[in-house]
Amino acid sequence: MNIPTEEKPVSVLLVEDDPGDVDLTKEALAASHLDVDLSVVVDGQEAMKYLRREGQYTNAAKPDLVLLDLNMPRKDGREVLHDIKNDPDLTTIPVVVLTTSDADEDVHRAYDLGANCYVTKPAGFEQYAHVVESVGNFWFVVVKLPGR
User: Fold this and answer.
1) 67 and 22 in contact (C-beta within 8 Å)?
2) Using an 8 Å Cβ cutoff, are 120 and 100 in contact?
3) Crossing angle of the two packed helices 44-51 and 77-85, in degrees rounded to 10
4) Between vectors from CA 148 to CA 39 and to CA 134, what angle results, nearest 5°?
5) DSSP-assigned letters across all residues of the chain
6) C-alpha torsion 119→122→126→128, nearest 10
7) Does residue 81 contact residue 111 with C-beta atoms inside 8 Å?
8) pLDDT at 26
9) Which pLDDT score is estimated for 32?
10) Cβ–Cβ < 8 Å for 36, 9
11) 65 burial class (0-12, 13-18, 19+ CB within 10 angstroms)?
């Protein structure tokens, strides 16, 4: 299922510190045939600068979706999630937690902080690609997002 061609590409911010997972996500999105404009930042501090359009990100597009890892240096995903969901300018951006943790504590905490969904990263590329495509199809084909 593709996004109609008259629509602009969906803007996704990937907040991920693992270069391998960044590459996997890029490959999975490419394989999904979704029209996605992907931006990547490697930690929570950079994520908040991007979202608030500070410093080098003054011309950054407001993302339609954030894919957020939980365990990162400098500012972890839980703090980023808290900041996003408590900022009136950012709170409507859907945040998908995409992480290796399947701990119940992490799942509950993420939802308590306002995560829109929580996805545990599968190990193999095919499974990972399927998960990313499913997330993309849900958020960009099925769901009506603000401003789209």
Assistant:
1) no
2) yes
3) 20
4) 60
5) ----TTSPPEEEEEE---HHHHHHHHHHHHHHT--EEEEEESSHHHHHHHHTT-GGGTTPPPPSEEEE-S--SSS-HHHHHHHHHT-TTTTTS-EEEEES---HHHHHHHHHTT-SEEEEPPSSHHHHHHHHHHHHHIIIIISPPTT-
6) 40
7) no
8) 92
9) 82
10) yes
11) buried
Q: pLDDT for 2-57, tens place per residue?
A: 444 446 888 999 999 999 999 989 988 888 888 899 999 999 999 999 999 999 99
* The one-letter amino acid at 56: Q
What is the pLDDT at residue 123?
85
Domain 10-132 falls in which CATH fold?
A: Rossmann fold (3.40.50)
Taking alpha carbons only, the member of 69, 88, 89 closest to residue 79 is 69
Q: What mean pLDDT value characterizes the chain?
A: 90
Length of the chain, please?
148
Give the closest residue to 117 by CA, choosing from 99, 144, 105.
Answer: 99
Tokens describing residue 57: 């990100």
The ranges assigned to domains in the chain are 10-132
